[in-house]
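Page 47, continued from p. 46.
Same chain as before, 163 aa.
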Amino acid sequence: MTRMLLPLAAALLIAVPSVQAQEAVFVIRHAEKAGSGDDPDLTAAGRARATAWAAMLAPSEIDHVVTSNARRTRETGRIVAETLGVDRSELAIGDVTGLLDLLSFDFADQRVLVVGHTETIPSIITGMGHTGKVQIALTDYANLFVIRPSEDSEPVLIQLQMP
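Result:
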C-alpha cells in the first residue's frame, strides 16, 4: 500500500506550482538503533528498514542525502545513498539552521532526503515554513515527510507511513 502512495505523493508534489527552486525535501528518522549509549549503531531490523526506505524512495528521483553525524543517521543515509547511487553529506547533530541553509543554497534545485532524529525533524519541517504540529514517538521509525516549499504560501506537507 505504501509503495503505491509514494508515486501518488510525488505526482502531487510535481503538480503543485512553486516559484522557489527547491524541488522537494524528503525527511525520515534514522532506522532502529541498538540500545542506548552515546552513539549507537543500527540493529539488524534498522538496516533492513534502511534498505526498505531505499527501495521505497527509488522512484522519487532523490539527488542527495543529508544526515547528522550520529552513527545511526549516517548508517541509514549511507544505505539509502548507496542504493540510489547519490552522494551523502553530514552535519553536526542538531544543526537545523545549517541544514536549512544547505537546503536553500547548496541543494536549492534538487530533491533531497534528510535523515534526522525525533528531536530535529519537527524543527526541520517548521523551519521550512510548515505551521502545523509534527510529533514523532520515540518508538516510531516509519514516518516519511515530503515537503514542497513555496514562497507564496505554506509548503505542501505530505506524511506517509511505512508498514
